[in-house]
Amino acid sequence: MYRSDAHTGKSEHSELPISQLVPGDIIKLSAGDMIPADLRLLSAKDLFISQAALDR
């Protein structure tokens, strides 16, 4: 995940627990990853989503 610092303009890549996600965080997903929260998809290449978890 990339977290952007509005004061310095710096971005850093780090792994955070799902509980620490906040609106505005940018999340990078790889093949096999579970989507950790509601999100807006900015870009994708060869995207496939299993909707099984959405049907609960």
UniProtKB/TrEMBL annotation:
One annotated GO molecular function is: hydrolase activity
Task: Give the enzyme's main class according to its UniProt record, as a single word.
Answer: hydrolase
What are the record keywords, sorted?
Hydrolase
Keyword Manganese attributed: no
Q: What is this protein called?
A: Magnesium-transporting ATPase, P-type 1
Q: Please name the Pfam families in this protein's record.
A: E1-E2_ATPase
Q: What is its EC number?
A: 3.6.3.2
Q: Where is the P-type ATPase A domain?
A: 12-54
Keyword check for NADP, yes or no. Answer: no
